[in-house]
Amino acid sequence: MASVNTQFSIAVHVMAAIAHHEGVFASEILAGSVNANPVFVKRILVKLSKAKLAKTTVGKSGGYGLARSPKSISLLDIYSAVNPPDAFAIHTYPVRKECIVSSNIKVVMSDVLVGTQEAVHGHLRQTTLADVVSKIRARSG
């Protein structure tokens, strides 16, 4: 079974939690919301901080907050920060020159992959963190 990369959904989860509660939270609190390993969540928060989407505050009441307004953070910003893998991978088996499919499939699938990634990026670019928080609030009411 192939492994699944959940960094993007966890990154959106912690950013939505910060935006919804409009505060600064320790990574342990955010990990509790995700119900995930605090070390894993902290690694994601570090990536979000490096991308200037989250800001860190040190000290007794320190933690992570948003670096910008939720309306100005697109899901593509978050997606890019955690650098997830492509939508799918193209196999690396050697080409059998006598087979027309084997000789051409990688080039054809590369074009499909580019189109798929462009579609994903376009949709994520149009959706903001504020949109996500609004939908969460609408579902909880």
TrEMBL record:
Classification via Gene3D superfamilies: Winged helix-like DNA-binding domain superfamily/Winged helix DNA-binding domain (1.10.10.10)
GO MF, any single term: DNA-binding transcription factor activity
Pfam family, one: Rrf2
GO cellular component terms, A-Z: cytosol
The protein, known as: BadM/Rrf2 family transcriptional regulator
